[in-house]
Amino acid sequence: MIRVLVVDDHPVYRDGLVTALDPAPTLQVIGTADSGDSAIAVAATSTPDVILMDLHMPGTNGIEATRQILAHHPAIAVLVLTMLEDDASLFAAMRAGARGYLLKGAGRAEIERAVTAVSTGEVVFSAGVAERVLALFAGGTAAAPFPELTDREREVLDLLARGLTNTEMARRLVLSEKTIRNHVSNIFTKLQVAGRAEAVARARDAGLGGRG
Questions:
Q1: DSSP element (H, E) containing 28
Q2: What mean pLDDT comes out for the span 11-37?
Q3: Are residues 99 and 55 in the same domain?
Q4: Cα–Cα dist 4/14, whole Å
Q5: In whole angstroms, how far apart are CA 81 and each of 28, 52, 56?
Q6: Contact predicate 186/154, CB 8 Å
Q7: Beta strands in 44-144 (DSSP E)
Q8: pLDDT value of position 212
Q9: For the chain, which terminal residue's Cβ has fewer other Cβ atoms within 10 angstroms, N or C?
Q10: How far, rounded to the nearest angstrom, does the alpha carbon of residue 108 sit from its chain's CA centroid?
């Protein structure tokens, strides 16, 4: 039996997923979690074979939870199941160690096959996601992270990830602190993050905040 932990902050979807997977003869749902923090705690005590991981959740998001879980339990396979289709979320999840990335439109049979595949070490993507991954490797270069951000907002996010304060960013970019605050607020809104720490984590996942 493949032991599965289901992580999603929407109770209706989470319970529906458990109900859908329950009849599968080779899968056993051994627990659920409604946040990244809860997923980390449950994974530590139940050591599932596969975690079905949502990404956008309050508190610790799915990407950071994936990173922390795999740092302590590298044998667990994380299969992302999310509504987020953007390249930044996809590549951040892969960098965090996820072995698969499915969109929530996936049917029960597709999810079952994906869980089985990642449990044996395979890597699985939804059809549309797979096309983008193949295009990335065919082109040899990655798309700019966070395409929803303007160039200036991406620049501010990069400096944010380097640990600069608003005052330091204003000085570096020759802008007013009010303008920097507006950019930071827009970044939080577009990335759907709760604050500075979560934005920094997302930025570093995507490769921003390097030296320079």
A1: strand 27-33
A2: 94
A3: yes
A4: 13
A5: 17, 6, 10
A6: no
A7: 50-53, 77-82, 100-103, 124-125
A8: 42
A9: C
A10: 21
Helix, strand or coil, per DSSP, at residue 134: helix
Distance CA 73, CA 86 (A): 27
The predicted model scores a pTM of 0.68
CATH of the domain at 26: 3.40.50.2300
pLDDT tens track for 132-151: 677 666 655 455 678 778 88
Mean pLDDT of 9-29: 93
Q: What is the residue range of 189's domain?
A: 151-205
Task: Quote the CA–CA distance of 76 and 43 in Å, as a whole number.
Answer: 9
Longest distance between any two alpha carbons in the chain, whole Å: 62
DSSP-based three-state secondary structure for 27: strand
Report residue 90 as tokens.
């996809």
- Between 176 and 92, the more confident residue is 176
Overall number of domains in the chain: 2
Per-residue pLDDT at 86: 76
